[in-house]
Amino acid sequence: MRYVEHVVDLVGNTPLVRLGTVAEGLDPLVLAKVEYLNPGGSVKDRIALRMIEAAEASGELKPGGTIVEPTSGNTGVGLAMVAQRKGYRCIFVCPDKVGEDKRNVLKAYGAEVVVCPTAVEPEHPDSYYQTSDRLARETEGGWKPNQYANQANPESHYATTGPEIWEQTEGKITHFVAGIGTGGTISGVGRYLKDVSGGRVKVVGADPEGSVYSGGSGRPYLVEGVGEDFWPSTYDKDICDEIVAVSDADSFEMTRRMAQEEALLVGGSCGMATVAALRVAASAPADSVIVVLLPDGGRGYLGKVFNDGWMSSYGFLPPTEGATIGDVLRRKDGSIP
Ligand code: PMP
């Protein structure tokens, strides 16, 4: 019989999938590391497992303890899944702009969700930063993973994602491309690939236009999960050989093409990273092997990037009224798939 004891045992070992039509006309091999195939649906399952195991080992998280983290998304799902397996309570703190569906996913896994007003300064006692700090302090056995400062975040990628990519490409990878949020993915995978290849592998960060990593001031953008308005300590500032800034419009267009042309229903940061990977491919030597990491799936974004009304309200699609199916599906070159 072939089975695992628990779904948490399935974290990692995600496949590489070759990108086809979106990479048409480019000589390098472009491979996507499909992280939505993790059991919690995102790359964050990896860091959740390692942050919890590191805190158990250091004694910060004790049996029966409570995990308190400001998160509304993927990290919360990963933490809730691992917490359930290991018998911890979870309290997640979300700003009120986070949709009900996302909160309900966390509740479905058995987590408690505390909602805070978005329209207050970070220093305000009701802000989601202050609330999560207070709850972690005041809850008996409380522990805050803090994915933006926890070194187990990049370490999880050094220990798992990096070696997987190296083995899957038989050491032939020449470029690694990923978006930067906490910076854990790019720093951990990038460091591993540089170490194992003697510095040969090029590491390319993908960043929303306006974010600090590509020289912006933190100007708002709509792609979720990537870009910052501050420098987290989980990001190794020396890791990237290049940073490619990608607009919301290009990110969302590619996200939709990924679903329509590659059958990869992925989130907006995946479209963004893919745009960066294809730009790298366009100027890289023909025999390059480019791996782009796709952090999550697209189901959490059905009301946004995959919703024509939402897309047209931001000017990413022509107004929906009277729009034809061709307008919605049209590729950059004007053709209709
Ligand atoms: N994309 C999505 C959807 C994410 O949730 C995150 C994590 N914030 C990232 C990309 C970036 O990954 P990292 O935090 O490892 O830089």
From TrEMBL:
It catalyses: L-homocysteine + L-serine = L,L-cystathionine + H2O. Signal peptide: none annotated. GO terms for molecular function: cystathionine beta-synthase activity; transferase activity, transferring alkyl or aryl (other than methyl) groups. Pathway: Amino-acid biosynthesis; L-cysteine biosynthesis; L-cysteine from L-homocysteine and L-serine: step 1/2. The keyword Lyase applies. Its EC number is 4.2.1.22. Its cofactor is pyridoxal 5'-phosphate. Keywords: CBS domain, Lyase, Pyridoxal phosphate. GO terms for cellular component: cytoplasm. Coiled coil: none annotated. One of its GO terms (biological process) is cysteine biosynthetic process from serine. The chain holds residues 1 to 337 of 455 of the full protein. It comes from Pseudonocardia sediminis. Belongs to the cysteine synthase/cystathionine beta-synthase family. This is Cystathionine beta-synthase.
